[in-house]
Each structure stands twice: as C-alpha cells, then as structure tokens.
Design a protein that fits this description.
heterodimer; A: 426 residues; alpha/beta; Rossmann fold; Ubiquitin-like (UB roll); de novo design (two linked rop proteins); 5-stranded mixed sheet; 4-stranded parallel sheet; 18 helices; globular; B: 160 residues; alpha+beta; Arc Repressor Mutant, subunit A; Glutaredoxin; 2 domains; 4-stranded mixed sheet; elongated; binds flavin mononucleotide; binds iron/sulfur cluster; binds FE2/S2 (inorganic) cluster
Chain lengths: 426, 160
C-alpha cells in the first residue's frame, strides 16, 4: 500500500503556493526546528536512519557530521539534476511541492549552519524551475529566507542554478565544478565535498527527496519516521515506475515493499496482460533482475544489494517479454558513452568500446568472442576511475550479459534478435 | 556583428553580481545569448560575451563545448528533441523519431532546408512515465504516437 508521507498533498493545487502550503501545515516545522539546537536536528536525522535518495544511499546525518568544526563558510547544494534514466520523482516534487523542498532545505541549512544554498536543476526542467522561482520569491516575501528568519537570528539565502545538459553534473563533484562556472568534470575524492567542496569550502550535497524528507523527520520525530521501512532502510521512498505497466508513475511506498506488489497493486499490473521478463530496479545503472528474481525482491537497500543490484534513485523500469535485451543494452550504453566526461581512460575508452561491440551485435556483425570481450572490458572499467559513471556503465553490462546470455549468443549466431526484429537505428 | 539587447546586457550585469564568482554567470549568460541569437551560440557571440563579461574567451568556450543544451550551429525554429533513452525506446521512441524525420524530410540533428525544424535524439528527459515523449523548444509533449507527434509539430509550424 502507498504511504503518503511526502506526497500527501501532491494532488492539491493550492499546495504549490505559499498560502495553501501554510494552510496545510507548511513552515510550522521550520518554527519547530528553530526551537531546537542544530546538533539536535543532526542527531534526529541520524537517529531516523535516513539515507540519501539520490543514488548512493549514504546516511544523511552521518554525512552532515563530517563537516569540519570550524568557522569556515559552508554551502548546501540541492541536487536536482535528475539525469539517471528512468527517474522522474524529483521533477514531480519540485512541480507539486516546491515549498516542501524549500522548508526542508532551510531546516537542513540551519542544522549544518550554512548561510547559502543552491538548488541545481537540470537545464531541461524549464517548468519546475519556474515553479521554484515563484516559490522562492514567496518564501523571501514571507520572511522564511533572508536575514534573521522568524526572529531566530539565523540568516539564509537560497538561489536556483540551471544546468545545461550533462548527466555527469548529477555527480556531486561534477555539480560543484559546474556551479563554479566550469565544465562539469568530477574531482578526485578525497577530499570529500564536506571538507572541501564548492569554491574550496565545506559543502553538503543532498538530493531533492532527501532534503524534503528532513522536514518530516523533524516534524514527526525520528521514531515516527522509522515506523516505515526496515531496520537498515528507514522511511518511505518515491519510486518512478516506467515501462510496460498499466499505470506508470511515481509512487511513495515504505522501503522494504515487495516489488511485485508495486507492479501489481500500484501500477495496475503488466500492460495488456503481457508476461514480465525483467526489471531494472534503480535506474539504468542498476543491474537488471530477471522475472524470477523480481518475485523475491523487496525494495530496500539491503535486499537489492544482496541480489547484486541496487536501489539507486528508485527508478523502476519494468520490461515485458517483447523486449530484446541486446537492444536494451545497446540503448543503455549509448547513454553512458555519450555522457562520459572523458577525463579517465577506462571510462572514456571503455564506454566507447562496449557500446561499439553491442552495436555490432545488433547490426548482425557480432562474433562469439565478443560476449567474453564485453565481460572483460566491463570488469576493467570498474573501481579505477574518478567517479562512478564508469562502474554505472559496466555493472548493467555484466548484468545483461550474464542473465540473458542466451539472447546475446542467439543474436551473434543468427544475426538477428531472439525476441523480435531489432532495426538498426543509428 | 552580434550584440545583446539592452535588456540582455542588463541581464548579464545582474548575473555577474548574482553568484559568488563571476565565472558562474557563464551558463546563464550563454543561455541569454542563445535566446537572442536564433537558438545558437556563434563564435562571434562568444568573443562579444567575453568582452562584455570581462572573462577569458577560453572559459566561455570550455562551458559552451561541454554542455549539450548549447547549440554550436544553427538549429530550426522548432527544435524537436525526442527522448531516445530506455523507457521511451521500449514504447516506440525510435520508430517515432524515424517517422518524424521522414515526414519533415530532415536527418537527425540537422536543420531543414527552410530553417524551420531540427529533430534531435536526446537522453532521458525525466518524463519516462509518459513515454514516448519529446521536448519542443521549452515544452514537453507526452504520451505520443507517431501520428499525434506529427500533428503537434504541423500545428506549430503553421502557427509560426
Ligand atoms: C554519474 C553519476 C550521476 C549522478 N546523478 C545524480 C542525480 O542526478 N541526482 C542525485 O541526486 N544524485 C546523483 N548522483 C549521486 C550524487 O553524486 C550524490 O551522491 C548525491 O547527490 C548525494 O545526495 P544524497 O546523499 O541525498 O543522495 C550521481 C552520481 C553519479 C556517480
Ligand atoms: S569515470 Fe567517466 S564520467 Fe567519471 S570522471 Fe572519469 S571519465 Fe568522467
Ligand atoms: S526514458 Fe524517455 S523520458 Fe526518461
């Protein structure tokens, strides 16, 4: 069953504007936050077990406590770059509930004592940016941003920064480079952004959904938040479901929710009653699950890790048996090759090679040794680059070719798809 | 010679003061130039912007060349960007793209002879639940079929 904690009021149009938002309890939690000490908020977030919703799942409170204990100016960056294929929940959150994000961000900024934050939004999101700009102005006019907010003595400024089309700017250090006005190339870690980030200052980068969730943790308390989810995966999560289901969309369910229930109950089952073939559970970087594996999958960090995949951004791509896996891998690899920023050789060359090899198989020119070659190259792409994009291309490659090996072999042998005619699109 | 409008020049001045560093104003200012230069950023507009912003041309070119939303060559009045990523491909995005290219007689990423349309294939636009989908200039168009997409574009071409 859906648990509408963050999404409770998403269907109400008034929730998008400050008056309606306040009528529905908005900005009350900010008042509560100012009655607490910053450390108390950090401790509450730690106790809630909240983990980052942007992909890596790092515990949010722990990340915040990495900030150096000195007077250096800190920045808070909200990651609204949302580029992981299959993901669209942050867009919904910004369009339907801009003030929820802003309130969560002010509370988070207060907790980490940051005077300035940016919301870095991907460039294509024109409409969400418009909604956010309006909301930001409303929040300034109402005195929730600026100097001495609500008489608390806390000052905070917030601004929006529009990206310009580069998936890699979703990677936190790539985002920092981009915000600094440079090409969005990731930087070597350590130092981590919490120590040395935007303009060399301590910086916390969190996803839209993570920062919005902070509001509810402070509103209801860590204990109440933990009522949802599992021991290691606390709370609710928004899943973006797309593909061959009857009702694709964004659904908020408690972590630990059975994947089959998400497909059958929330999404109305498979479209046209087709047979389920596979699911990519966490965005296109997450290794694919076979129909059999899907039956025993629950949507939480630990179960998906155990299945050799990951929860990622919560993008669930559901495939029926009309999909050719060789073709799907080709589409996926085109993306990673296109988005590699090019500064690490294994990533730049590797994504190019594996995309080329899979394309040649799709064109009917594959050789049997190509499948082993793919595996070898993918393995060499992992764990040796500046950021995780290289792994994000290699992991799904290994997933596809191990779990659907027969389809790859058939394609090489017969020069055509085992599933259907795949046209050689450029 | 390319020159921004007075309003555009004011915009650049404001952006230069808006962020912690002047350099951060490059992306917003390139958007402005693109808007006032029929949808693309020409080499001469980069020199112009470099002087206006008092920043090295190399910095501006670095940004221009890295980000895909800046067009380095002319594009059609209608820039049709069809998502060709996974969820959209599963639901017919490539067939849709082929249909549009054929109907409007252009190759992907190229501008039509009359300058009215460019059709590009782009990566996931964060609207996978309404696949297949496309973006035309600033707006999303969702739940498409080849027929419905063709109709939307024809309507816009006639409206222009
Ligand atoms: C290639 C790549 C792309 C990423 N894209 C995004 C993104 O679009 N949105 C996001 O929130 N995190 C993205 N991340 C994760 C960020 O680096 C970072 O971990 C996250 O923003 C931290 O926020 P969280 O702890 O709240 O999840 C990406 C990571 C990599 C390696
Ligand atoms: S792994 Fe790829 S995307 Fe990441 S920094 Fe290296 S080259 Fe760039
Ligand atoms: S795959 Fe097309 S919008 Fe996401």
């Amino acid at each position: 069953m859906e648990i509408k904690l963050l999404t409770e009021h998403y269907d109400k149009k008034e929730f998008r504007f400050i008056e309606g938002y306040k009528k529905l309890g908005g900005y009350e939690t900010l008042k509560k936050a100012f009655s607490l000490k910053p450390e108390e908020i950090i401790n509450e977030v730690k106790a809630s077990g909240l983990r980052g919703r942007g992909g890596a799942g790092f515990p949010t409170g722990v990340k915040w406590s990495f900030l150096p204990q000195n007077g250096e100016k800190r920045y808070l960056l909200c990651n609204a770059d949302e580029g992981e294929p299959g993901t669209f929940k942050d867009r919904l959150m910004m369009e339907r509930a801009p003030h929820q994000l802003i309130e969560g961000m002010i509370i988070s900024a207060y907790a980490i004592n940051s005077p300035k934050s940016y919301i870095y939004v991907r460039g294509e999101y024109n409409y969400p940016i418009k909604v956010l700009e309006k909301a930001l102005q409303e929040a300034y006019d109402a005195g929730y941003l600026g100097k001495n907010i609500l008489g608390s003595g806390f000052d905070h400024d917030m601004d929006i920064y529009r990206g310009a089309g580069a998936y890699i700017c979703g990677e936190e250090t790539g985002m920092i480079s981009s915000l600094e006005g440079k090409k969005g190339q990731p930087k070597l870690k350590p130092p981590f952004p919490a120590i040395k980030g935007y303009l060399g200052q301590p910086t916390i980068v969190n996803n839209v959904e993570t920062l919005a969730a902070v509001k509810y943790i402070i509103r209801d308390g860590a204990e109440a938040y933990r009522k949802y989810g599992t021991e290691k995966s606390a709370g609710t999560k928004l899943f973006s479901v797309s593909g061959n289901v009857n009702k694709p969309g964004t659904y908020e369910v408690p972590l630990g929710y059975p994947l089959m229930d998400l497909i059958n109950n929330e999404c109305g089952g498979m479209k046209n009653g087709a047979k389920l073939k596979a699911v990519i559970p966490g965005g296109s970087s997450a290794p694919i699950l076979t129909a059999e594996e899907v039956q025993k999958t629950t949507m939480d960090y630990e179960c998906l890790a155990q299945m050799g995949s990951m929860l990622g951004s919560g993008a669930v791509i559901v495939m029926d048996d009309s999909n050719c896996m060789v073709d799907m891998l080709k589409v996926t690899l085109h993306f990673y090759h296109h988005e590699s920023c090019g500064q690490c050789t294994p990533c730049r060359e590797g994504t190019g090679w594996i995309h080329k090899i899979v394309s040649s198989i799709v064109n009917g020119e594959g050789r049997l040794q190509d499948i082993d070659l793919l595996e070898k190259i993918a393995q060499q792409m992992m764990g040796r680059t500046i950021c995780a994009l290289s792994d994000a291309a290699a992991m799904p490659t290994l997933g596809f070719i191990t779990k659907f090996k027969d389809e790859f072999e058939f394609f090489v042998r017969e020069g055509r798809s085992k599933v259907k005619e795949v046209r050689a699109h450029a | 010679m390319f020159k921004l409008s007075d309003e555009g020049i004011n915009f650049v001045k404001k952006e230069l003061a808006r962020y912690e560093t002047k350099r951060s104003a490059i992306i917003p200012c390139l958007y402005r130039v693109q808007k006032e230069n029929d949808g693309w950023v020409s080499p001469e507009s980069v020199s112009y912007l470099s002087e206006l912003m008092e920043l090295p041309e190399a910095w501006i070119n670095e940004v221009l060349n890295f980000y895909t939303m800046f067009n380095k060559k002319p594009v059609g009045k209608l820039h049709v960007q069809v998502c060709n990523n996974i969820s959209c491909c599963m639901l017919g995005a490539r067939e849709l793209t082929d249909h549009l290219c054929k109907t409007f007689n252009v190759k992907p990423e190229e501008i039509s002879e009359d300058g009215k349309i460019t059709i590009s294939k782009v990566e996931c636009l964060g609207s996978c639940d309404t696949a297949p989908m496309m973006q035309i200039n600033d707006d999303y168009h969702e739940n498409l079929t080849p027929g419905s997409a063709e109709k939307i574009i024809k309507g816009m071409l006639n409206g222009n």
